[in-house]
Amino acid sequence: MLHKRILAFLIDYLLIAGYAALLLGLSLLVFRGRAQMPELGSDPVFGQLIGALSLTLPVFAYFFLSESGYRRATFGKRCLRIKVEVDELYPAKNVLVRTIFKLLPWEIAHTGVHWLLYFVQRAEDVPPWVWALLIAPQTLVFFYGITILMSGGESSLYDRIAGTRIIPQE
After folding, report:
1. Rounded-to-integer distance, Cα 95 and Cα 99, Å
2. Backbone angles phi, psi at 47, to 5 degrees
3. Domain boundaries, given as residue ranges, for the chain
4. How far, in Å, CA of 109 to CA of 133, rounded?
5. What is the 3-state secondary structure (H, E, C) of the chain?
6. b/e map of 75-97 (b: 16 or more CB within 10 Å)?
7. Helix 2-32 crosses helix 128-150 at what angle (to 10 degrees)?
8. What's the predicted TM-score (pTM) here?
9. Which of 41, 51, 98, 133 suits a disulfide with 162, CB 3.0-4.6 Å?
10. What sign has the CA pseudo-torsion 30, 32, 38, 44?
């Protein structure tokens, strides 16, 4: 199960990376004819909002809609013939919680990067809370990985929180 879960993650990651590359390409086309692109760190809240709407929300929708649907699997999981097992009474709630906790480190890291750029572009010292925003997600993902390894691929920390697990498709 572990190797299937890892390969499924890699397939999904390639899809997400392709989407992110498409967004980058589109933004370069939009700003190509302009004298200057906006400074990346000029407004960290606005940058966070744009990133959340253009990247995080679509990725969230991909995971949530795929795993709460009747197949209970993303494209990567379908390719490897595994799926998310959920509580039959509240499947959408379980998948919602799973997706929130799964993507939480990613969004915290984005926040940290936006604020890091903000302070660096102003040649100001980066406050400790920004470093915490950059380190905390890595720590959380490390624990996610350890729990996946310890369960043989069946369950992660976010699966345990959500009451879900990964099982073979029938």
Report:
1. 6
2. -60, -40
3. 2-168
4. 6
5. CHHHHHHHHHHHHHHHHHHHHHHHHHHHHHHHCCCCCCCCCCCHHHHHHHHHHHHHHHHHHHHHHHHHCCCCCCHHHHHHCEEEECCCCCHHHHHHHHHHHHHHHHHHHHHHHHHHHHHHHCCCCCCHHHHHHHHHHHHHHHHHHHHHHHCCCCCCHHHHHHCCEEEECC
6. ebbbebebbbbbeeeebeebbbb
7. 150
8. 0.86
9. 98
10. positive
Tens digit of pLDDT for each residue in 65-123? 999 998 999 999 999 999 999 877 788 999 999 999 999 999 999 999 999 999 998 89
Residue for token pair 């984005």:
110
Place of tokens 């624990």: 143
Residue 38 is encoded by which pair of tokens?
């906006």
